[in-house]
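Hi there. Long-time user, first ticket. I'm pasting a complex I've been working with (about 953 residues overall). I'd like to know whether the download I got is complete or cut off, because the file seemed smaller than I expected. Thanks.
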Amino acid sequence: MNHFTAQFIKDGRLILRELVVWAFATALSTILITPWVGSWAGNQLSNIDSVQRFLGTAATFIILGVIVTNWLIAHRLIAADNPVNPKAFWLSRPVGPHVLAASKFAWILSLAWVVPLFSSLPILLLSGTTKGALQCYLGMGVLFTALGAIPLAGFSLVRKARFLFYAIIGIFVIQLAGQIYFRIGSGPNLPSYSPVNVEQARKVVGLSLTVVGVFALIYIQYRKRNFWIGILSILSISGMVWTMTNKWSLALYSDSIDFPVPTEKFAIDSGRLRASSGTSNKVPYFQIESTMPIIEIEPGLVAKAHGVESELIGTLGRTARSFKVGQSLSNEIADTFELTRVSLRGTEAQPHGASITLARENTADWDQQIGQIQRIEGTIHYRLYRIHEPLRSRNNLVRHKDDWVWSKMEAIQPSGLNVKTFSITTEDRTEKDGLLFDDRLLVNPDQNEWLDKSGRNSRSSSLSFLRNMRTESNDFQPETRSMNVDGNRKSVLAPEKVWFEQAELWLPVVENLGSYRQDFSIDLSENQNGRWLIFPTVQSDRDDGSITSFNISLIDIVGGKTTTLGGGIDKAYGQWNTLWLDGNSLLMGTSKGVFKVTINPADSTIRRIKPSIEEVKMMLQAMAQFENSGFIPREFLRSRM
Amino acid sequence: MTINYAIETIGLSRRFGSTLAVDNLDLKVQSGSLCALMGPNGAGKTTLIKILLRMLPPTSGTASVLGKLSAKIEQSDFQRIGYVSENQQLPEGITAAQLFAYCRRIYRGWDQHFCKKLCAELDLPLNRPLGKCSRGQSMKALLISSIAFSPELLIMDEPFSGLDPLTREEFASGLISVAGEGDWSMLISSHDVDDVERIVDHAAIINTGQSVANLDLEKMRADWRTVEVVLPDSPKQQDLSHLPEKWIGAIISGRRLKFTDTAFDPGFCQRELTQRLGAVVEFSSHPLSLRDAYVELAKSWKQSDANRAIVT
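Hi, the file is complete. Here it is re-exported in full:
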């Protein structure tokens, strides 16, 4: 038996009691949390809210329990054979430092990573977790190991000291007190608080450990007066703080799915750049958008961008602000909803594309760059979803006294699929003036963020309905009702609504296929369409929000000239739609009018002209067909020309 | 003939800031010798041992252990070196039996039979967690773990410290029983001179980091005597300054003079006394224990002219 085995056995005996606690915490975590972990969206711990809803506060304690147990074990293992303790037993024994280190790390890695991973694998595989999500799980495991065990082991390397143990307990108590405070303090009328707020937690822990680490360093330097230990301590603390506070981006994988999806189909449309402006934190910005068209792919596939990294490259050498991967684009949830909705319109209809902000600059910075920018380069990160057939369609709601009841809703998962999110759709068919209207109500219980937009408290049991009925202004009209999704009785506040009686239940399953990335490079100087940015702005003086006047600005990015064309319009609603006819002319339309705009490349001026009847018809058809999506695919134009 | 030294230091010094803990120390412990390292508190004994075991680097000079420079001692060399210290921490969370099982795996020369024999002799509870053992039991476990692999050199730093008399006796008896077994060397640092004297055959005495005496106990017992004489008149203090160098710790009490002769020869002693102090009325001599010798030496350090090396 070699020295490593001897040391490994001895270390195992040392942590025997802790192993019992560890086994309990890990088993709880594996059994209760792992099935939820499998639904990671790909680049972040996005589904922690799902765990929270299922386990409540218990999830917090289980996760903290695992982390703290790993901390304690790491500390105990290292401190028992402390490298700098002159009284250590090992110093006068024939066991090499490499044997000691190997044994300690073997235990720490086994307990903090390998064993939990492999015990979770069967559950993950049984629940249909994709290969990519497994890789992500591996990555997160490494991250959490780094967060927990390794920095503490580093601290323990410095000196065996009881105070460290109490410091760890102290951090745990502070965390616990914070959790309890927020749990009690956030009543039903207060904004909801997620107990495991990864973003906040790592700052708190990072800060706490920094303070402890600095005090430890001072203490050590008083006692040891050792330069290298001081340096190592500083590095250890710095590394830990960096680890704890860094915004990790784990876009680890690109799944190979069971059907070919050529990436060209997800390339952004470089010829259809748009510009828009807005204000963020009271600072005006200007941004360039485009559309990632998705054409000729399998029905039910949906792509959604969740991050763009881009640069505006020009003679000034400026770099535009881009969106980090994992940092939600502002309309991410709405996009998801829209894309899902479109796909539900029927198996033949395809999502047409996702609007993507390629680059954003403060207006002042942007103005300096006009006439300087020559190229936009970057990478789009997007996720691919597949919308499956409704699990159980046409399951009508039944009225029971004042309640509406789904007698029993069985969420039968397609074989082998891990249902990531699902939406419940009720369909209402009404006849008006001899025409059949389909109205849909959608509810997505897994997307709290979106639901919160309608003012719902995510911790209440009610669900929000977003009725797919558009008023004359084409705006969504959210209606809130109370409903229990899991097959029990639902209380509906407005039972007199006819559409609800006629509603049908749809249960589409949205399967997360994986994360992908797509590089893009748009040369503005050579791309005639890309060179011009049409920038419509509207004004509304009326209470109903209708548009009363508009301005269409043309920005010549390369030439550096901006011209504006303005005019009045009577009560238009919704967004502007743009249809490029060629490199120098386009149709722009609202619900109340269609204009044709032509560009004179020689002097970068624009001119509004009257479109032909055919062009107006074409534009109206496009707008009707693509429902104010803001993007009309080229195929439409090709089919008409 | 080449003499093999288990321990040898040449001009060894170690400084802590302004404090010189070990000062140009020359020390030799022959292979097979059982040597006591003695000296007052702060004499530099523990520092010396830490240097020998490469736990501390020397400021200057060299120290060799089993023929190897201490600075180059590797972890594998502890297959030949045992170390017992009052300050050493035993592994936590395991019992003595588990400790010995661990030692059995890491020491090539581990003698399980010898280990069991020692456990029985020292009455060590094998299944009690080491963290719950008394100090005496911990020291016994430490001793067994340090000698059951038959090291060539055993270094002990205050092994008797804090032990009750009974445990100390058991511990010392255990050491005595193993000291005679095998061909090994031992360096034992302790203030418990009586216990140490039963074990060792040599004693190295240091003070303020310097070597004061290196005694062969057998020779010391033969040569060292406490001499007590009664003179016709009270001698004067200045008369003592002319005494031979090997007479140390001279004390005058009326007409009585008491001193330690480190190279006792009755004839020479009486002749010298008569020559220097006149007629001797009474003359008596007694052999010294190591304790007596150490005390006499310690007294002599305090005399301004007595801080000198004595080698027998």
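A couple of notes from our side: Confidence is low (pLDDT under 50) at residues 304-312 of chain B. Chain B touches chain A through 27 residues (CB under 8 Å).
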